[in-house]
């Protein structure tokens, strides 16, 4: 089991910055209409483990389909570095875009989980 630690994430221009405590133990991608366009790699974490340290006023929210997930992207550079939602128990959850972590994290796409979001 990988160890939990604090990772730093940010959008491309750096306006949006955050810290998240996670073990990156359940990284995944998704084939829904939005995720397949983005090609992002997700890691969910309880919202209590996530701290937005910069850029709250530089975020725009996009919702689609069931509108349960708040896709948050930077008004300046357009990068979605995280999204907010709730897990099956109603706990506030953050989905971090692993590709936005700095320093970069190696992602082996052959071992990550593949969510069938297209057929939910
Ligand atoms: Zn930005």
TrEMBL record:
<comment type="similarity">
    <text>Belongs to the Gfa family.</text>
</comment>
<keyword id="KW-0479">Metal-binding</keyword>
<dbReference type="InterPro" id="IPR011057">
    <property type="entry name" value="Mss4-like_sf"/>
</dbReference>
<dbReference type="GO" id="GO:0046872">
    <property type="term" value="F:metal ion binding"/>
</dbReference>
<dbReference type="Pfam" id="PF04828">
    <property type="entry name" value="GFA"/>
</dbReference>
<keyword id="KW-0862">Zinc</keyword>
<dbReference type="InterPro" id="IPR052355">
    <property type="entry name" value="CENP-V-like"/>
</dbReference>
<feature type="domain" description="CENP-V/GFA">
    <location>
        <begin position="7"/>
        <end position="116"/>
    </location>
</feature>
<protein>
    <submittedName>
        <fullName>GFA family protein</fullName>
    </submittedName>
</protein>
<dbReference type="InterPro" id="IPR006913">
    <property type="entry name" value="CENP-V/GFA"/>
</dbReference>
<dbReference type="GO" id="GO:0016846">
    <property type="term" value="F:carbon-sulfur lyase activity"/>
</dbReference>
